[in-house]
# Entry
Amino acid sequence: MIKRLISFLLIVLTFSLASCSPTLGGLQRYTDAIDGYQFLYPNGWMPVEVQNASEGVDVVYRDFIERTENLSVIISKVGESKELSDLGTPTDVGYRFMKMVNQSPDSGRNAELISAEKREVDGKDYYILEYQVKLGEDQYRHNLASVVTNNGKLFTFNISTTESRWDSVSELFRIVANSFSLASY
# Structure
């Protein structure tokens, strides 16, 4: 009886400590079983109805309080046998994305690639891209993207905030961006 009580208390203590962990506390898991991906997102973020899903936007979440903070997953088609490395290095892919953002001079947007790196999860390569985006004269945003290919699809996970909030949320946003992965069922 005492062994069972001690075991139960250890389990409760373990779960309590895990929920206080800075890397996982305050995060929820989102899993898309149809498209086969998953990620963590902060508590207090709400799903946003996707208006034009035909453009590849699969899911959008936004902070309930800091409404300018958001994340999205965009799914695009690439060649059936394309691996991420076939699209180029992390820097190549980062600059290509930056050119797409900057190509319309009427948009008032100007992106700058800050960093590009590769990470591996379960034998799959992911590129983590960091951008600063200038909107108009004096508005800046900070974006982190995680990119991966699978079965002829390019998955782009993006999380974004205003530059003025970046320092206070950067660690959390990095955890969230690195949590994006193809689901393994």
In short: The first helix runs from residue 2 to 20. Confidence is low (pLDDT under 50) at residues 1-23. The chain is about 25% helix and 45% strand.
